[in-house]
Amino acid sequence: MPSECTPRFLASDNTSGICPEAMQYLLEANQADDLAYGNDRWTARAADRFREMFDYDCDVFFVFNGTAANSLALSAMGRSYHSVICHELAHIETDECGGPEFFSNGAKLLTSPGANGKLTPQGIEALVTKRSDIHYPKPKVVSLTQATEVGTVYSREELLAIRAMADKHDLRLHMDGARFANACAGLKATPAELTWQVGVDVLCFSGTKNGLAFGEAILFFNRELAEDFSYRCKQAGQLASKMRYVSAPWLGLLESGAWLTNAEHANAMARYLSEGLQALPGVSLMFPTQANSVFVEFPPHAIEALKARGWTFYTFIGAGGARFVCAWNTTVELLDQLLADVKAVLE
Ligand SMILES: Cc1ncc(COP(=O)(O)O)c(C=O)c1O
Ligand SMILES: C[C@H](O)[C@H](N)C(=O)O
């Protein structure tokens, strides 16, 4: 990036800073010493708050990042000789560097196509019934991403249909909730309505993308799968000794309600950007904007010109195109600058 351009960040919600609510609780947790390895007061309070928020007596674990959350959760949901069915654009397939396969000691990912980045019951069943011989890694888990990698969401009806197919074939259901809050906001649904009430066994809920510095919560609604899970975390280097610095900021998000208002803001900004882009001649979106990501196809010269103006965005996500991700701190002013630059480089 030319040094004269101030970088302007819309590549990912991972580029945003720590929101005020999380920072406040982080500083409060720093006022006193506390026990280590999750035995502190903050971690207990955060776990209880999750159970209250989801209205379910789930097991709660905290790890540092989403790849660890997905990989370790999936390793607890099946055996090494099993397979995990996921969408062909799933993060666990495209961007976790083999983490799920590694931590499960070899479970294979079986990928399925599907419009708008979403698995379908038919796609799942096609993989389950494709083969039944001993040489085929036995399907045991379905992993879906909510909101998806391409910024769409599964409706409750779609989730229930997937759960019905999973029940038909004795499959467990994992939810990559890197942008789960954005799905709740986009669907105006409660956390319970989008998880255990539609048969999700394990949710990996990202805080990193929602205003934390780092920190992901893994919620086991199927508590049998959580047996010895803390040992999996420890062995993987994911048991934080000063866990209160992960759990306290999470508590800040939950107790203030910022977990939802941050997502509502990010989604609103994405809608604003989406509408602005569609108003420009010759610009069309690649996917409906249902959460906090906007995908648009630009000619190569426009991509280079936007980057030369300091814009950071990914072009390797999903089915290509440029991805712009809005976060809790994205502003209309920033988006207006982008829209003006897009208009200029396309003229
Ligand atoms: C859909 C999805 N799942 C999982 C992850 C993994 O998160 P991390 O980068 O923290 O490993 C990401 C990354 O942001 C993601 O976009
Ligand atoms: C793609 C990258 O790994 C990250 N999950 C993101 O969405 O920005």
UniProtKB/TrEMBL annotation:
<dbReference type="InterPro" id="IPR015422">
    <property type="entry name" value="PyrdxlP-dep_Trfase_small"/>
</dbReference>
<comment type="similarity">
    <text>Belongs to the threonine aldolase family.</text>
</comment>
<comment type="subunit">
    <text>Homotetramer.</text>
</comment>
<dbReference type="InterPro" id="IPR026273">
    <property type="entry name" value="Low_specificity_L-TA_bact"/>
</dbReference>
<dbReference type="InterPro" id="IPR015421">
    <property type="entry name" value="PyrdxlP-dep_Trfase_major"/>
</dbReference>
<comment type="function">
    <text>Catalyzes the cleavage of L-allo-threonine and L-threonine to glycine and acetaldehyde.</text>
</comment>
<dbReference type="GO" id="GO:0006567">
    <property type="term" value="P:L-threonine catabolic process"/>
</dbReference>
<keyword id="KW-0456">Lyase</keyword>
<dbReference type="GO" id="GO:0008732">
    <property type="term" value="F:L-allo-threonine aldolase activity"/>
</dbReference>
<dbReference type="Pfam" id="PF01212">
    <property type="entry name" value="Beta_elim_lyase"/>
</dbReference>
<keyword id="KW-0663">Pyridoxal phosphate</keyword>
<dbReference type="InterPro" id="IPR001597">
    <property type="entry name" value="ArAA_b-elim_lyase/Thr_aldolase"/>
</dbReference>
<feature type="domain" description="Aromatic amino acid beta-eliminating lyase/threonine aldolase">
    <location>
        <begin position="10"/>
        <end position="296"/>
    </location>
</feature>
<protein>
    <recommendedName>
        <fullName>L-threonine aldolase</fullName>
        <ecNumber>4.1.2.48</ecNumber>
    </recommendedName>
</protein>
<dbReference type="InterPro" id="IPR015424">
    <property type="entry name" value="PyrdxlP-dep_Trfase"/>
</dbReference>
